[in-house]
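Duplicate of #3305? Posting structure anyway:
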């Protein structure tokens, strides 16, 4: 399997000029931990994650460093200047991490897993001819494992099934399914759906999947509804 087989295709992105407050609101409302920063040509120029927003002047968490008299004072000053920008800048371009690690859509999952582990990142932008086409995360890999293994000769058919099903569901207002919630393995469609979904919606998702040529079976995986503490 390759990155294109499990990646999330509906990627939430921001522009370099997006304000830090807008990014923070987006992360909070969508329940995600980071977003790619893309230019007008949909090329990734950075990643802005929760980690980039940990030390901010708005929350009084900006870094403070006591200056010391030593030979490395110049280096310390540079670090302090960089930290000041991180904590006070107003737009994504000044806060984002610019050194982006990405993969091509044809990258084998073994290489994807190795990058996620060795680079200690949670997600990787997936590119086609240098432009963003998806995101592959640790969660995507875990779901692929849960769905089971598949022989190489069946992968092409599974890709076609997944593509047709996503096209069908994207046209239906009731579907509300992310690409990451669908994995096809050896003709078996695995759907990850929230436990709050109505029986009618679950039946409709099942029927939509069963109507795709080549589908042998549909398996639903219910995800618990997230709970939030009362204040």
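Output from current build:
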């Amino acid at each position: 399997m390759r990155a294109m087989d499990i990646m999330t295709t509906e990627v939430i992105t921001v522009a370099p000029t997006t304000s830090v407050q807008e990014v923070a609101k987006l992360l909070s409302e969508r329940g995600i931990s980071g977003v790619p920063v893309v230019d007008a040509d949909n090329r990734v120029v950075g990643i802005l994650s929760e980690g980039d927003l940990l030390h901010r002047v708005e929350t009084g968490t900006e870094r403070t460093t006591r200056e010391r008299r030593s030979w490395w004072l110049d280096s310390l000053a540079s670090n302090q200047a960089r930290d000041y920008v991180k904590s006070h800048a107003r737009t994504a371009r000044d806060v984002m991490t610019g050194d982006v690690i990405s993969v091509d859509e044809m990258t084998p999952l073994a290489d994807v897993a190795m990058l996620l582990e060795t680079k200690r990142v949670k997600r990787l932008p997936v590119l086609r001819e240098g432009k963003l086409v998806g995101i592959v995360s640790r969660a995507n890999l875990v779901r692929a494992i849960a769905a089971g293994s598949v022989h190489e000769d069946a992968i092409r058919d599974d890709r076609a099934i997944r593509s047709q099903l996503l096209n069908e569901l994207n046209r239906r207002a009731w579907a509300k399914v992310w690409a990451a919630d669908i994995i096809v393995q050896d003709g078996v469609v695995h759907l990850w759906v929230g436990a709050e979904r109505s029986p009618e919606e679950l039946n409709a998702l099942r029927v939509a999947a069963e109507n795709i040529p080549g589908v042998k079976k549909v398996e639903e995986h219910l995800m618990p509804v997230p709970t939030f503490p009362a204040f």
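Confirmed duplicate; merging threads. The chain has a mean pLDDT of 85. Residues 52 and 72 are 25 Å apart (CA to CA).
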